[in-house]
Amino acid sequence: MRLDKLLANMGYGSRSDVKKILKKGIVQIDETIAKNGKTQVNPKEQEVFVNGEKVEYKEYVYLMMNKPKGVISATEDPVQTSVVDLLEMEDQIFNPFPVGRLDKDTEGLLLLTNDGKLSHEILSPKKKVGKRYWAKIAGEVTKIDVQAFSEGIELDDGYITKPGQLTIVSSGPVSEIELTIMEGKFHQVKRMFRSVGKEVTELKRLQMGNLQLDNTLEPGEYRELTDNELHLLRN
């Protein structure tokens, strides 16, 4: 890739900023001073230094966020705050995007990456990647609901969902549940409960596939996935 693109991607500023750095003669490819931004460099085989400091190149970024309420799952929006707006500039430069969506009033586990292949595999219905949610429900959730969810729920548009695994945490006028589904239809969890006469009042995603939300992350906080978490996600 071009040297100026690599440096810009690694957070050394805009193309014009990088051009100024190159003019100073403080950029090296291996042992050679490089002043031309068009110079081709293979970051997997060559080392790049700026002012004697090695540039740690990475192509992809994998971020786990505890998405807060009131923020939309999008890369940008002219009016509303998006999840990408919550990222530090050093992570924004990789142009990450949310893998799937959480409603504006839903919180919990959200993966952001610029790895399109991994995103496709996670979201592909053929892969059957389960998504586990915790929810607070207005209404008493019963064993009848558990059975209905295990057979698939007919939504308001006539679509019948794939079977979901519903677990009752507590039941009463206000119930708490956990639900694992393999799909991600628009407002699916809320619509499934609405179909059985109940309303979701709070919703939080806890898990995607084998990746679980880090409970130490406060709403709005995020961190990079560990190598082990990335391995779990890919498998």
TrEMBL record:
EC main group: isomerase
Residues covered by the RNA-binding S4 domain: 1-61
Stored InterPro entries: PsdUridine_s_RsuA/RluB/E/F_cat (IPR042092), PsdUridine_synth_cat_dom_sf (IPR020103), PsdUridine_synth_RsuA/RluA (IPR006145), PsdUridine_synth_RsuA/RluB/E/F (IPR000748), PsdUridine_synth_RsuA/RluB_CS (IPR018496), RsuA_PseudoU_synthase (IPR050343), S4_RNA-bd (IPR002942), S4_RNA-bd_sf (IPR036986)
EC number: 5.4.99.-
Name of this protein: Pseudouridine synthase
MF terms (GO), sorted A to Z: RNA binding; rRNA pseudouridine synthase activity
Alphabetized UniProt keyword annotations: Isomerase, RNA-binding
Gene Ontology CC terms, in alphabetical order: cytosol
Organism from which the protein derives: Salinibacillus kushneri
GO biological process, one term: enzyme-directed rRNA pseudouridine synthesis
Iron-sulfur is among the record's keywords: no
Recorded superkingdom: Bacteria
NCBIfam families tied to this protein: pseudouridine synthase (TIGR00093)
